[in-house]
User: What shape does this take?
Amino acid sequence: MTAGGFGPVPAPSDSSSPPMASPTLPDVTIYSDGACTGNPGPGGWAAIIVDGGVERVVSGAEPRTTNQRMELTAAIEGLAAIEGRRRVHLYTDSAYVMNCFRDGWWKRWEEKGWMNAGKQPVANRDLWERLIAETRRHDVQWHKVKGHSGDPMNERVDRLARAAIATLATRTTR
Assistant: This one.
């Protein structure tokens, strides 16, 4: 499907759906997660990127944020860390992020001037716009992972997001 003339924005899938074929774009896998201590409170985000069998991690933290903002930031930064246009299988345990793409919330927000179904401004618009821009740059296949259910990569990225929060304490004590 095409979104706003910016190229294909693929339909999301769950982890049981087969990936769409795209022979010209090499596959990349991202596991993303955000975490918060308090909501709002100190937050961290992380993404594990697996490209050609090679893993790399991007992560960061903010002193006062929300869990939803950290979930969005993890997906954004994971996608932004991939050069060029690629087919990306993005795994998230965030219903907030997943539902937006699965149910097409973002399309209605754009059409309605960034107002939600309750005719209120969309929360976290700044991050949603960045995430939508990244999904337009890549061929993203969305996969929902149940959080804290034993998926090894999801558990790892959760630990990394929580570890990112701990970096805030070391920054303030130096």
